[in-house]
Amino acid sequence: MKLALFADIHSNLEAITACLAHAHVLGADRYAFLGDLVGYGADPVQVLDLIEEYATKGAVVVLGNHDAAALGREDGSLNANAQAALMWTRAQLGARQREFLRSLPLSVRDDNMLFVHASAAAPAEWIYVTGQSEAARSIEASHANYVFCGHVHEQNLYYAGADGRPVAFRPVPGTPIPTGSHRQWLAIVGSAGQPRDQDRRACYAFADLARERLTFFRVPYDHASAAQKIRSAGLPERVARRLERGS
Amino acid sequence: MTTSLGPGSEIDGFRLGELLHTGSMAAIYRLTGPDGPLPLIMKIPRLGPAERAINVIAFEVCRMVLGALAQSPHHPTLVAFGDVETMPYLVMEYVEGTRLDDRVPHAPLPPDEVARLGSALALGLHEIHRQGALHLDLKPTNVLYRPSGEAVLIDFGLARHGHYPDLLEEEFRTPIGNWVYLAPEQIVGVRCDPRSDIFALGAILYHLATGRFPFGKPSRMAELRRRLYRDPLPPRALGAETPGWLQEIILHCLEVDARDRYASAAAVAFDLANPAQVAITERGLRDRRTGAATLFRRWLEARKFEPAPCPPVAVPTQPAPIVLVAIAPGPPDESAFAALRDAARRVTEVDHACRVACVTVVPPAAGLSGERYEETPTGRHIAQLVNLRRFARPLELPEERLTYHVLESDKPAAALIDYAKMNEVDQILLGAPRSGRPMRLLTGVAAQVVAEAQCTVSVVRPRPQQ
Question: Which has the closest alpha carbon to B129: B198, B80, B180?
Answer without folding.
Answer: B198
